Every structure is written in structure tokens, then in C-alpha cells.
Backbone:
């Protein structure tokens, strides 16, 4: 299954969009915990793209591409911002960061996906989940 | 998201049905506001029917924890599904919150 989307969602629209998108993967018979993770990483990446990439400018788009089979799921999300320093993100699990409200999105993406790569100074993320059968 | 409130003596139990996400978090925050304004100091969040949480939802829970601590109150979480527990463990937030297997254990802790 391949799907491509050109989006200009507001933050509050993200959960319903991702829920519907991940719902389309159900025919692939993917474990529900994996679908939870896939939905979560898409949601986190979209929120980052809208908030930090496009700086909440709804005239800018976010581009999403998903290629899913029963063996792997590849997701690519790109915003129209300048990127960010993805190599220098504080670890949210450190004691001094545990109380902080933000900073868990990219961390969760890295933990839940098999492979994560950034391009265009961080304005484009490619993430892959390999599925065990 | 739906929140069902049940009072057991001076403890307020909030059963959350649905998702805590970037869209539903304001609703949970507002519900909590009312509890804090009514001087409720003992709260249990029952996650039996919580199906999903994102980082925005986690942030909201941290905010609520800090607010209840400011009025010398406490809130506990119980009945997390394995998947939600997994997200708390990955983010190490199980160290920040007091999480119980069931409602009875949480009630006995007050």
C-alpha cells in the first residue's frame, strides 16, 4: 500500500488524520501494538513538522508518504521549514528533563522505529519499521 | 475522550475512556482545573479504557502532576494497558508518576 498526502493540518487535526491513515493499514494484518507505534511516530513527526518546521504557518504544507507491506513500513515526512539540529536534542529520560513538557517526540520516534534518518537539515525525516512475521 | 467521575470518600476517581492526545488534552486539563478549584487533593486516573496517548498527552499528565503537588495533593494512575505502560517505560515517566496495577491498590495508598 502506497499513499501520498499534501497536508496543511492544524495541530488539533493530527490525531484524527493519523487514526484514519493507520486504519488503512489494517488489511495488512499488522499487530495492533505496531499500529499504535506507527500512529504515534507519524503523529509526533507531523506535530514537529507543523510546529517547529513550518512554525504553525498554515499556508505551508507538510508532505507525507507511506509505503506499507506485511514486511515493512516506510514513512517519509517533509516540511517547508529550515530544519533543526537533530543531533543535539537533549535526552528526555535524563533526571533533569523528566519534568519537562516537551522534547519526547523525536526520542519516541527513534525508540519505536527500526531505522530513522534525517535529511535537508532535519526538514525531512525517513523512518522504517521492519515487521517480524 | 470521555471522563467519568466517581467519588470514594475524599478520593476522586477519573475513568478516562478514549485517547489523551494533542486534541483531547485541553478537555482533561479543564476537568482537572475544576477538581483543583474544588480543593480535591486525592485523585486517581483510571486508564482501563485509555486506548492511546501521545507526547502531548504525556506533557499534560506532567503538568497535572505538578499542579496537584502545588496544592499538596496527590494523583495516582492505575490499570494501564501493557502498551501504554510500554510508552511510560520508554520515556522513563513511570519513575515520575505513581502507577498501580488496579484501583484498589491505588486507593489503599492514600
Residues:
Amino acid at each position: 500500500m502506497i499513499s501520498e498526502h499534501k497536508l496543511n493540518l492544524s495541530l488539533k487535526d493530527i490525531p484524527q488524520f493519523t487514526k484514519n491513515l493507520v486504519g488503512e493499514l489494517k488489511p495488512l494484518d499488522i499487530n495492533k501494538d505496531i499500529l499504535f507505534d506507527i500512529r504515534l511516530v507519524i503523529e509526533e513527526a507531523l506535530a514537529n513538522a507543523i510546529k517547529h518546521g513550518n512554525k504553525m504557518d498554515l499556508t505551508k504544507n507538510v508532505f507525507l508518504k507511506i509505503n506499507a507491506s506485511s514486511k515493512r513500513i516506510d514513512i517519509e515526512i517533509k516540511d517547508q521549514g529550515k530544519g533543526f539540529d537533530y543531533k543535539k536534542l537533549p535526552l528526555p529520560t535524563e533526571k533533569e528533563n523528566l519534568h519537562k513538557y516537551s522534547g519526547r517526540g523525536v526520542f519516541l520516534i527513534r525508540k519505536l522505529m527500526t531505522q530513522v534518518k534525517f535529511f535537508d537539515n532535519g526538514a525531512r525525516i525517513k523512518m522504517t519499521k521492519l515487521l517480524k512475521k | 475522550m470521555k471522563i467519568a467521575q466517581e467519588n470514594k470518600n475524599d478520593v476522586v476517581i477519573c475513568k478516562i475512556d478514549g485517547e489523551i492526545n494533542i486534541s483531547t488534552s485541553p478537555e482533561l486539563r479543564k476537568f482537572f482545573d475544576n477538581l483543583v478549584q474544588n480543593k480535591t487533593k486525592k485523585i486517581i486516573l483510571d486508564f482501563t479504557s485509555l486506548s492511546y496517548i501521545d507526547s502531548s498527552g504525556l506533557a499534560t499528565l506532567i503538568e497535572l502532576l505538578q499542579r496537584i503537588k502545588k496544592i499538596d495533593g496527590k494523583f495516582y494512575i492505575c490499570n494501564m494497558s501493557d502498551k501504554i505502560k510500554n510508552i511510560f517505560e520508554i520515556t522513563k515517566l513511570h519513575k515520575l508518576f505513581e502507577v498501580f496495577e488496579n484501583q484498589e491498590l491505588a486507593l489503599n495508598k492514600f
In short: Chain B has a mean pLDDT of 95.
